[in-house]
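Example 4.3 (complexes with small molecules)
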Amino acid sequence: MSILIKNILHNNQRTNIFIENNHFAQIGECADIKADKVIDGTHKAIVPAFYNTHNHAAMSILRGYSDDKPLFEWLQKDIWPIEDKLTPEDIYIASRLAILEMIKSGTVFFADMYFFGEQTMRAVAEMGIRAAISRVEMDLFNPEMTTAKKKETAEFLSFSNPCPERIIKCLSCHAVYTVSDELFEYARDVAAKHDMYIQIHVSETEQENLDCLQKHGVSPVVKLDNLGLLGPKTILDHAVHLSEHDIDIIKKRKAIISTNPNSNIKLNSGLFMFEKLYSQIPEQITLGTDGASSNNNLSMLESMKMCSFAAKIQANSALAGKSIDVYKVATENGARAFGINAGKIAEGYLADCLLLDLNNPFLTPNYNLISNLVYAADSSCICDVICNGKLVMENRIVPDEQNIIFQAQALSEKIKKLK
Ligand SMILES: [Zn+2]
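Answer. The structure with zinc ion bound is encoded below.
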């Protein structure tokens, strides 16, 4: 499969881009190369796609199910009880809805933390994007659940990855307030043995820090470090309330942070210290949406804007959260964090990209495309999405999208009755 994109705007210049198999093969003088598909880029620009480093994709089916509550009450009273009733097939339908929304808003990769990861893998494999899929570890300090979770993890590990080229199998531990030391240690050993990524919610709320300090005498970051869980393949989700000591540890261990501004603001969890952390560990900061039920969408365009605005308020400075920095965090940092050779439009990189409609009012005038993307654009600006050298959305159409919506609507009717 090859794609030739002719006369497209790239870094403020018109050029031609030849994609062969799954990577950018040539940029520049290649307008005469024969290709399976030719795209006229005259009114378009090409930019890297988004890499969403924290999601609970199937929670898209719970969008609007419960809102306007603090994190713990929201989880315990509304979210966890209904999640217990979802079946594997429900997760597949819900994952397809999430992936449809992600493709439409320019995301080609998401790191997921949820149940029935096999079903989410199935949806990712079919729909053509990338993901890091885990099965969530959470035992609520109940020894019977610890045993059950270990068994489920063993099953997840033996499940055959339907698309190793695009899907990374990884682990996740929910948080220090839901996972026992025994399960943390088990996950640590499994990750070390198989060289896997681990995703963990950490210091999302002040309450989490206070409880951890009271119970263990240390912060969540120190606790995880004491358990040997922090390293370059650890993704720390949220990381809103960090001390100087916590930051030093994260820096030393080269752990990755996924900031989720929309979720943090909606749940009033706090404001991530973007500027402070980006100035100290720029390569370790990435961006996520969190699940759609606490956001309430999976648009990285919205998350970039919120990330920048939250950074400005948090640092009390209009200079904080610059569009160019936030854009880098949402694209190349996210890809690099998961070892994906993408996030840049350059020869040799994996061909993941967005083609933008320069006639869209949100991108007009176009003095600064990155500024427009971070501060002005919405999904309607994206006309085509390419992942791994293949079009996963063409002229805003994703294959089978009507069916995906109908199935999700039917599932939501079932969920209403389960309430
Ligand atoms: Zn989360």
